[in-house]
């Protein structure tokens, strides 16, 4: 089985802070990590490899420093790594990104493509399904588990009410939930070897699309403005004993007609 | 010329989802600014009798796509149906709920239509043309990015349909008006079943209580400061007196004290109850992103520098585990009066 996993390097958004004076994001010192759902997706691929044997290729689109997550993927057990990088790809929204990655994937053979459900920097959950459409593949998103039986994937998809079981034959694109696939640790020998393994660097020559479909030019949306949230005018804060606190809360609830 | 504001009116097992009515409410505001109509796309099987419900909440037209292929949501079947409606009708705007269905369907459509899509919007407005950089009558889609640390207003970069998904619980539905009149328009879809590669084997509902905290008018929410299951029982008692539900911060979900479906915040649910009572929640930005639109926020926390106090209408510096039982007792008496 040939599996390709799409991964992304993202800033760890849980440690980003806002500069209270300028109101801008403080990016210095924020670690870059492999996006958690993508790591879940890689784990899904490696579990299939463990059980049935598979060749697992990881691909990422990003700046040269995204090489780091490809090394991490090697150390977890990936067999091949591709860095898709180029100035032409910059400023892309999900539509342009998905076109670029889909076009690059056309250079590869696959029975299964896996992407993370969403990336923590954008939280859009769009690129996986968009790649599937561009490649004419069926998709199942929010995947929390799967089995491979008689040439078919039996997939557990999480929903708001519970889950669904779905069946599909490859080639197919699945988007993975980190919660469904607890990623293994890098093994020590793997970490050492990872730095010697080759990472293929692909540029725009591997993307057979008109340049107007890439990057900022190929985007279906644009950022009109961005801003940090104005903090709501703070209300009253009281340091009082428990008895008085109860009194304050009860009168506020009466004032606002909650009781 | 593209016209009208469309809403994908999500139903599950024939039940119209609350987010569909919320989106119709917002679409009503947008369409009124544009002088256009609100059109609901209502897809499913044996659902036509419910189209009037969508009109009662603000739709002018309901396009009903009724077909056995659409009985359950499967990506390709629904993509074909909604794609055919959009290409036939040329809507100006289409809104989807940011649910596991909307977030599966909308990107697929965006790629098939070659149009942009903005995810998980929290605010939608129509531009008035006052800014020379942005034409009038464009949809301005505002959403959180970087884990809620930054807000971005996105606009479509291409002509044609403008599409967005909106998180459940963010927009407000209109008052139901059963006397509203509208048009119910059947729409016939021609399916290409050769593309139906995914087979639904079964749909399983989780056993745990199907509590939807986005529907609650009152939420008593607990965080790290509440700590354990025993103390959460105290919150449950208070919620009971107030006719509300218990919710929680991510910390308590990660600790296994609360289920994920009760989590408020960026990776949980967005809520806007009449009262949000935050107990022992410090108020990480990811949490605030999910609850700061609540009508009234009361926070109890031991740390007087906790960020939750910056969004609270009333803040109490103190121990929630001590105050909550006293408050429950007092409210029980007050409400009896």
The structure class of chain A reads alpha/beta
Quaternary state of this entry equals heterodimer
Beta strand % of chain A? 25-35%
SS elements, strand count of chain B: 18
- Sequence of secondary-structure elements of chain B: EEEHEHEHEHEEEEEEEEHEHEHEEH
For CATH, the homologous superfamily of chain A is named as HUPs
Q: Count structural domains of chain B.
A: 2
**What would the CATH topology of chain A be?**
Rossmann fold
Strand order of the largest sheet of chain B: 7-11-6-1-4-5-12
CATH fold type of the largest domain in chain B: Rossmann fold
3D structure, described in words:
The complex is a heterodimer of chains A (259) and B (337). Chain A has one domain (2-213): 3-Layer(aba) Sandwich (Rossmann fold). Chain A is 27% helix and 30% strand. Chain A has helices at residues 36-52, 67-76, 94-105, 127-135, 188-194, 242-255, and strands at residues 2-7, 9-11, 17-18, 25-26, 32-34, 55-61, 80-84, 112-116, 139-149, 152-158, 162-169, 172-176, 199-202, 221-227, 236-238. In chain A, strands 11-10-9-12-8-1-6-7-13 form a nine-stranded mixed β-sheet, sandwiched between helices. In chain A, strands 2-5 form a two-stranded antiparallel sheet. Chain A has a two-stranded antiparallel ribbon with strand order 3-4. In chain A, a hairpin with a 6-residue loop joins strand 3 (17-18) and strand 4. In chain A, helix 2 (67-76) packs antiparallel against helix 5. The N and C termini of chain A lie far apart (62 Å). The relative contact order of chain A is 0.17. The model of chain A has no long low-confidence stretch (mean pLDDT 92). Chain B folds into two domains: 3-195, HUPs (Rossmann fold, 3-Layer(aba) Sandwich); 213-336, TPP-binding domain (Rossmann fold, 3-Layer(aba) Sandwich), CATH 3.40.50.1220. With 337 residues, chain B is an alpha/beta fold. The termini of chain B are far apart. Classes of the chains: A alpha/beta (259), B alpha/beta (337). Chains A and B meet through strand 3, helix 3, helix 4, strand 9 and strand 10 of A and helix 4, strand 7, strand 9, strand 10 and strand 13 of B. Strand 15 of chain A pairs parallel with strand 18 (314-317) of chain B.
